[in-house]
Amino acid sequence: MKTRDSLVRLKEFQVNEKRRQLQQLQLMMAEFDRMAKELEHQITLEEKKSGITDPNHFAYPTFAKAARQRADNLQVSIRELRVQQDAAELALEEAQADLAKATALEERDGSLRARA
Fold this sequence. Notes:
Layout: H1 2-50, H2 62-115
């Protein structure tokens, strides 16, 4: 049937879209992690240069303070993206299950038409 064929195509599109969204989240998390590591490296260099490693010290470098805050913000964003990733993985699994059902219906209908 034509409607089942379009249903299968729709479900395939949905699965591909969910995969793309999941990959995009993973890429963002990896990029944020890379940026946070780079900031940590810069913080370490700044602390070595100033000789002060205590962020509460009155003479702690302003750049290191700002970089630490940005790195912390990136870590918060990564945690939030992990929650979104978990939801995206569930949505992908559901879409794959829907696709499997639609494909099975299409195959069943195809074999019924072949017998008739």
